[in-house]
Amino acid sequence: MKVKTILVTQPKPESDKNPYFDLAKKFNLKIDFKPFIHIEGIAATVFRKQRINFADFTAVILTSRQAADHFFRMCTEMRFSNFEELKYFCVSESTAFYLQKYITYRKRKIFYGKHTINDLMDVLKKHKKEKFVVPCSDVSKQEITDTLKKHDIDFKKAVIYKTVCSNLSDVPVANYDMIVFFSPSGITSLFKNFPKYKQQNTRIAAFGATTVAAILKSKLKLEVQAPVPQAPSMTMAIEQYVKKANK
After folding, report:
1. Cα separation of 180 and 174, whole Å?
2. Where does the chain hold its CATH 3.40.50.10090 domain(s)?
3. Which residues of the chain have pLDDT under 50?
4. In percent, how much of the chain has pLDDT > 70?
5. Pairing of the two strands 87-90 and 59-62
C-alpha cells in the first residue's frame, strides 16, 4: 500500500527549511504534526520534597533547552540567585548558546559536546572535582545516568519537569498511512487516548532503541526504524520506505 499521509508526533517545525517539508514536496505527501506528549514544570513545593539545594553544587549538566528553561525557572522559584557562578556542561552547542537567554556566555563557564552525553564525557572527566546537578524529567533517559555512573561523575538528578500525555481527541489517528514516534511516552499517549487502538494498515515508524522496544512491547508492527547505518535520520528512513511503497 502507498503512503500518502503521515502523522509526526512532534510539534510542527517553525522554519519552512525542514526535511519533513522537503519530503512532503518530493513525494506529494500530506504530513501533519501533533505532539503526543508535552512538558509541564514541577512546582517548587513538590521539588522541595527531593531535598535538593542548588547551592550544594558547582556545575550543571543540561541535556536540552527544556532542561535549561526549567532549571532557571526553578532557581527563581527557590530564590537561588548564584547560578551565574556555576559551570554549565551542555550536550550540544545549540543548548550551550541558548544559555545566553539566562546568563552571560563565558567560555570558562560553559562547555558542550556534539550531541549526546557520550560526546560530553571527555570534557566532564577533566572536571571530576565538580559536583554536578542534572535537571531532568520524571522519565529521563537511563543512558545518561548509566554513563555518568560508569565514569564516576559526582552527580545528582533533579526532577524539575514531567512528561504528560497530550489530549488527542481531535486527531483521527486511524486515517493516517504512517505514524512516526520518537519516545516510549508517545506510545503510552497513543493507548491512553485510544485504549482500543488497532494498527490495521497504518505503518509505524520509530526513532531510537527505547521507542522501538516500546512499540514491540505494545504488540505493534514496526515498519520504519532510525537511526540505522543506511538511514541516520528519521526523514531518511521514511524516504527510503516511501520510495519502495509508492512505486
Report:
1. 13
2. 43-161
3. none
4. 100
5. parallel
In angstroms, the CA 56 to CA 159 distance is: 16
Global pTM reads 0.76
Phi-psi sector, 6: left (phi>0), alpha (psi -120 to 50), beta: beta
Q: What is the mean pLDDT of the chain?
A: 94
Structural domain 43-161, CATH architecture: 3-Layer(aba) Sandwich (3.40)
